[in-house]
Amino acid sequence: MLRYLVTTFRTPQFDPSVIEAHYAFLDDLREKGQLELAGPFTDKSGGAYLIRAADLEEAKAIAFSDPVHISKSSIVTVYEWNAK
């Protein structure tokens, strides 16, 4: 399994009501053993999380099912990350 850094940056259409669903999404990933780290940026512009996936395609499928992406509340970007 490879690591992927997912960044989420709020859009002008950000809907605060999506936060609860976003956290539930992250909790589900954590329970499945796919989420390593997650947290918001201190400037409240968005956040990031580190997931494990077999390949970039799977990582994007996971990240793009995040409620903040589906609702267009945030721009979600996925990077393969060779963190050590």
From TrEMBL:
InterPro entries: Dimeric_a/b-barrel (IPR011008), YCII (IPR005545)
SUPFAM superfamilies: Dimeric alpha+beta barrel
Every YCII-related domain range: 17-82
One Pfam family matching this protein: YCII
PANTHER family registered for this protein in UniProt: GSR2449 PROTEIN, YCII-RELATED DOMAIN-CONTAINING PROTEIN
Family label: Belongs to the YciI family.
Name of the protein in its database record: YCII-related domain-containing protein
